[in-house]
DUF7779 domain-containing protein
Amino acid sequence: MASTISFGDANHGFQANIINGSVSTTFHLPAERPDTPPCPSVVIPFGCDADFVKRRELFDRLQTTCAVPGSRTALVGLGGVGKSQLAIEYAYQTRERSPDTWVFWVHASNTARLEESYRSIASCVKVPARQNPKADMLQLVHDWLRDEARGRWILILDNVDDAGFLLEVPSCGRDGQTSSMEGQSEQPLISYVPRCQNGSVLVTTRSRNAALQLVEERDIIAVEPMEKRDSLVLLQKKLELQDSGEEVIGEVIELAAALEHMPLAMVQAAAYISQRRPRCSVQQYLQEFQKSDRKRTTLLDCEGGQLLRDWEAKNLIIITWQISFDYIRQSRPSAGDLLALMSFFDCQGIPETLLRNCEEETAKQDQEERDSDHDDWGDDGNSASQSSVSDDGFEDDVLTLRGYSFISANADGATFEMHGLVQLATRTWLEVHGQLEKWKQEFVRNLCVAFPTGEHENWARCQVLLWPYTL
C-alpha cells in the first residue's frame, strides 16, 4: 500500500514499503533565468592615465587603422616604449567616442592568462551557460563575439611576445602551460579570436616576428621612443614643472635626451627625483647619471612611479629588456652573441665588417670543435650549414635583433645603430652572467683585426674606426 506525501507547493514524494521493480527518478529543475543583457563598457584592468601624452601622428594612425571593420593591428616596439599605454588610451577614447562599443582587454602572455581573461569577459557580458563547469568558455566567448546582435567590439591582446602558444592547440602549447578548461575542443587558441565585421583586434608585442604571425605587414605600427616635444611634456607632468622657467626646462630637455626619450625610463627618473625632493633636482640627477655605467644602472634600478602596466611586466627598463635578452639567448644564441658584441661599439654607425669578423672567427672555432669531435657528431655537413658565418646566418641574427627593436639598420645598408640604454642593459646582463670581459676582449680583437697599417692612404679608414672611441 503506497501513499503520497506532500513536501510543499513545489515537489511531491512517493513512499513505498517494498519495491520489487526498478525505480526511475526524474528531476524537473526550474529553467535557468536569462540574465539581463548588460550595457557595453570598457572591460580593462587599468584606469585612464591623467598624465598620458598623446603622440599625435602615432595615435592618429592607430585610430585610423583600427577603425576599419574586422581589422587586426599590432603595436610593436621595445619594452617600456609605451605600447600598452597607447592601447589603454585608445580604449578609453573609443569608449568616449562610441559608447555602444565594447572594449575587452586580454592578457595574452600565455595560455593560462588568456583563459583567465576570457572567463572575465564571459562574466562581464553574462554569456549564457558560463556557470556550467563543463562548458567550453573559449567557445562561448567566441560565439558571443561573432554574434553581430551583440554590437561592435574591440579586443586588445596585450603582451604577445611569443605567438607560438596562440597558434598551437592548448594541450601542447609552447609556453609549457596546458589548458585548464574542460570540454575545450582541440584547436589553436587564435581560432577563438573571431574574424568578423563587428569586431577589431589590437595586439601589443615586443617582437615583430610575433606580430607577423597575427597581422599583415601593412597593419604593423612601430612604436619608437617619444619625440622631443612629447618627452618634455611627459617629464613636466610627472615632475609637476609645467610652469618652470627656461633654465629648468633646459635641464628637463637634457634629461629626456640622456634617457633617449624612453617613456618608462623617464617615468622612473621622475619618480626618483620627486621622492627625494628637495635633496635631489633634475640637474643633480643628470650629474649622477652621467658619471659612469654603474651609476646609470643604479639609478635605473630604482622602481617607482610606474606607468600603467600589467603585474607580469617589469617596471624597471633594464630588467624589461634583459627578459628579452634571455629569450633571444635561448631561441637563437648566435643573435645573442651579436648583441653582446654590438654593445661595446659606439651606438651610431656600427660597421657590419667589424661584426662579421667576430662571426667568422666564432664559426671557425665552432668548426674546429666539430672536427675534433666528428666521431660523436658524424660528418653529414649539416652543422656547417647552421653556422652564422654564412650570409643567411648573419642576416637571420640581424633580423632577430631588429625584430625586437634592439638595433636598426642605417640607410647605407652597411652600418647599424643601437640605443645607448640598450647597450648599457646588455653590458649589465653580461656582467651578471660573467661574460663582460670576454666580449670586451672580442670587441678589441675585432678592432685590431680590421685596423689597417699606418700608411698615409689608410689614415681616413683609421679615423673612421677609432674616432668614436677617442677621448
Q: What stands out?
A: The CA atoms of residues 293 and 424 lie 7 Å apart. The domain at 42-222 is CATH 3.40.50.300 (Rossmann fold). Confidence is low (pLDDT under 50) at residues 172-176, 373-389. The longest strand covers residues 199-205.
